[in-house]
Amino acid sequence: MSADDFAARVARVREEWLGRSWTIEDDVTPAVMRRIAAMLDMDPSAFPSGAEVPAHWFSLFCAESARQGEIGADGHPEPGVVLPPIPLPRRMGAGRRVQLQGGFRVGEVLTKRAEVAVIEPKQARTGTICVLTMRHTFTVGDRPVAVDEFDALYREAVAPGAASPVNAGQPAPTDAAWSQVQHLPSTLVFRYSAITWNAHRIHYDADYAREVEGYPALVQNGGLTMQLLLDAAMARTGGRRLASFTARLTRPISVGDTVTLAGGAVAGDAMSAWVADAGGALCAQMELHFA
Q: Between β-strands 242-249 and 90-100, what pairing exists: parallel, antiparallel or unpaired?
């Protein structure tokens, strides 16, 4: 596809999809909470009806539910079924900006309003990309819970047998006030994908990940990386209420890797946190702000 053809196709997608929105409801049931808690290695009975749910767990609910016949070759819904038909074949999460506005409890109904907020083609070091930003607004009835602007990157296909281009990366900070070693077994990634209804094949089909998308191994789910880092950081805040956070994924992690979750001390109303791989390279960054 020529650059002019790509630009024209993206322009058509923008015209048809920008600003489009829809809603999804999800029951925050004790059964679902048992599965989430168990996946995060917590007591499954810790969240009975009426219990408060950690506010940043909102993203574990209200998943899209495309029919099986609408799933594409990569495991995502076919382009145009749920998300805009951006004319690049490979999609991965890149980061998010979140405002937390209130809590929610087990037994309530959480509603997500999804809106196509940004469709922006770019030229990156690794080739042509397109950034899709989805704005997700979560509420319980008329009560606001969270606004999450989630960025996904669409990238070009790799040639058969070629490696997916990866940036050289940069060293992770070495001045952590706290750190936690975290193994990422396939069972954890599987359970997270089941809870969030994510069938992207790079997370469980090693032949597909290597032969089609050019990765050396199964790819860790970026949403899970952010979830684990948030939980680790919140355990070191002395009970402060999280008001907002930003997160950026900077380097792929493979399923089966052992990484280090780390961060600084709370300074004023903020904390920095990050993920480093076994070689000390920075894989994710996060900035947390407290009320």
A: antiparallel
Percent helix, strand and coil across the chain, each to the nearest 5: 25, 35, 40
Provide the CA 254 distance to its chain's centre, in angstroms.
15
207 phi and psi, to 5 degrees? -60, -45
From residue 279, how far is each of 9, 206, 254, 262, 285 by CA, in Å? 40, 22, 13, 14, 16
Alpha carbon of residue 282 to chain centroid = 17
Residue with tokens 């996904």: 152
Q: What is the largest CA-CA distance in the chain?
A: 56
Place of tokens 């999800």: 26
DSSP H helix total and E strand total for the chain: 5, 12
Whole-angstrom distance, CA of residue 278 vs CA of residue 290: 30
pLDDT classification of 254: cutoffs 50, 70, 90: very high
CB 275 within 8 A of CB 253: yes
* Global confidence as pTM: 0.94
Token pair for residue 68?
């099986």
DSSP state of 51: P
The packing angle between helices 186-196 and 222-234, to 10°, is: 100
Q: Residues 199, 183: contact at Cβ < 8 Å?
A: no
Structure confidence by residue, pLDDT tens digits, 168-197: 779 999 999 999 999 999 999 999 999 999
